[in-house]
Amino acid sequence: MSTPLRLSDQIAQQIQQLILDQQLKPGERLPAERVLAAQLNVSRPPIREAIRTLASQGLLATRPGGGTFVLSPIQDWPEKNLLPLAQLVVADPAYNYDMLEARYALESSTAWYAALRATDQDKDNIQRCFDSMVNYQQQGDAEQSSRADARFHMSIAEASHNIVLIQFMRGLFDVLLSVVSQSRNTMFQSSQPNVLKNLTHQHESLMNAILAGDPEQAKHAISQHLHYVQDTIRENDDNLARRQRLTRFSLPDPLL
């Protein structure tokens, strides 16, 4: 079982979120320690410890008597590093399989930690994202339901309260949205009935495991979901390839 985050680690995550929310750029100054302490409702010693941790990671720089400054643009590095991946996925849908494997490695962790650490606010956010996804599905809005699907998975990552996992998921969001959209389009062409119903049930099972604080069930639910997506897409790809072969080698109609 995971040990709870230290107070200073929680504060470090909140400071990073503040940098993201306020879009602070390298060279810009953070609020003073006393201001941060008031905003976060904590004493100043854990604020100092959190700043030291972020400084050791190369994110912040502290100048004696001059304050604390942003050293690197944390909101940009994941997107820049993952841009080639996004282009690959768009150019060749076959990379969906690699993406699904990567999602399993990443999201099995985010689901696990979300089940352990999700606050009431996190749980409300996950529920809202799920309800939004179901609503768009019922309206037949494929684009918005795909975006809501990706946002649902992102809300789970945010509930993990692991800043590294959150940053990776944020960097992957556009790639994830593209993959989810392609996957949904492919799956809805599948010969299997009730695909949408199965997807909704899987998402609901994942959500319920996190709301119940059951990390093992949450990890199992995301595994079942991603394997189902992979199997359904592979079946559809196989059927498409078979139809293409039949078309390629079909004999001319003798009556023509």
What's the SSE blueprint?
Blueprint: H1 7-22, H2 33-40, H3 44-56, E1 60-63, E2 67-70, H4 77-91, H5 96-117, H6 120-139, H7 142-159, H8 163-188, H9 195-211, H10 215-248
Antiparallel strand pairs: 1-2
What does this entry show, briefly?
The chain is mostly helical and 256 residues long.
Would you write up a description of this structure?
By secondary structure, the protein is mainly α. The chain has ten helices and two strands. It has helices spanning 7-22, 33-40, 44-56, 77-91, 96-117, 120-139, 142-159, 163-188, 195-211, 215-248; strands at 60-63, 67-70. It has a two-stranded antiparallel ribbon with strand order 1-2. Residues 77-81 have low confidence and may be disordered.
From the structure above, extract its key features.
single chain, 256 residues, mainly alpha, two-stranded antiparallel sheet
Strand content: under 5%
Instruction: Determine the N-to-C terminus distance.
Output: 72 Å
- Biggest β-sheet description: 2 strands, antiparallel
Considering DSSP H and I runs of 4 or more, what fraction of the residues is helical?
Answer: over 70%
